[in-house]
Amino acid sequence: MRSRRWGASRAAALVGAVIAAVALTGCGSKTRDDDAISGKTVTIYSSGPMSGASRTSAQAVLSGEQIALEQARGRIGKYRIVLKPLDDSTPQRGKWDPGQTSGNAHLATQDPTTIGYLGEFNSGASAVSIPLLNRLGIPQVSATNTAVGLTSSNAATAPGEPDKYYPTGVRTFVRIVPNDAVQAVAQVKLQKRQRCTKTYVLNDGEVDGQDSANSFALAAQQAGLTVAGLQTFDPRATDYSALALSVAQTGADCVLISAITENNAVLLTKQIAAALPHATIFGDASMAESTYTDASDGGIPDALDRRVMLTVPTLAPWLYPAAGRAFYAEYERRYGSPQPYAIYGYEAMSLLLNAIAVATHGGAERARRSRVVAALFATRDRNSVIGTYSIDSNGDTTLGRYGVYRVRDGSLTFVSAIPA
Description:
- The protein has helices at 10-25, 55-71, 98-110, 123-135, 180-193, 207-223, 241-248, 265-275, 290-293, 322-335, 342-359, 369-377; strands at residues 41-48, 75-76, 79-87, 89-90, 95-96, 114-118, 140-142, 173-175, 198-203, 226-232, 254-258, 280-283, 308-312, 382-384, 387-389, 401-408, 411-419.
- The two termini are 32 Å apart.
- β6 (114-118), α4 (123-135) and β7 (140-142) form a beta-alpha-beta unit.
- The protein is an alpha/beta fold.
- It contains 12 helices and 17 strands.
- The chain folds into 2 domains: 37-178 and 330-389, Rossmann fold; 180-312 and 401-419, Response regulator (Rossmann fold, 3-Layer(aba) Sandwich).
- Helix content is 37%, strand content 20%.
- The protein has a 7-stranded mixed beta sheet with strand order 10-9-11-12-13-16-17, sandwiched between helices.
């Protein structure tokens, strides 16, 4: 395993290759004469992993979407809204799969009633689906993607980002969670509060992991926090004891793990904790799910709870407006305690429904994808369950706070909110 600095990862190169391949063999020969939807039924596709550790979070997002659609009674004026959930994972991989993801996007592009697409759950999956959907002008809203490169570029992003994701030159993707640049600033502030002097950063090589790690390294450099090392680990390894020993030898007193849970985040945490018995272990939003935090669900042992802290875009219910608190009450009534991203699933659907209503004048006029896209990007000072926000010209939210959570008895416990 080699230490990596700020260039494009092999994972990013692979995603680029997948994008190029599907662009040539998929929608390249299709042309669009009109983006209007015929008839009185429009379809929203929702894509996320229903296999692997992230299934719990992805299902919570979908449940939030379903609640929002039900509360809208499944209609906007004359239009009936149909939600079609799709699984972007495979049991064989146990996580999102590039081929499955491109297949989902193709289903949406081939359906003449498609008015919008919710997803993906993982940023790497969106790197595959955005170009396919963009070619047909299909509006896309993600409740969870944080990789900076999907919408903008900085010193931490890969070459060609974000333009390579938008072959038409027109933006069609928006997200409602603050991106990794925001999360990185929150992480650095948190680690300085926790008196970290030297942090070692490990990532799984996925788009999410690489972007989050590089964003943190950039923010740490700007804030004067020493990064002892920045390294990609093998997510398929069965033993990280040698890696953990090498991290310990750097004298790091804090470790940031940037990885999706499926990529051995639990095993890596346990072995890092054993090799660095006095270090605090930090994780990013990709690990904020019960399959990482709860030993009974395959997560870390209870003995490590006091040593682990995570940054998550979700805040405590009492920090949200009345509509947000009402959502939590409804979700708990139906499903029990929510995974952190459930409320973002609700808002992703709500935002898309609002854009459709604006684009069709309350369902009275013909639905056109381009008008829905324009309505999404025209979002200003929206009062929502997650607070008041706008969508900027890149497709990013103006929300700028991350929640800090500790793990206690297998559950995430809110500590504080940190503004970027």
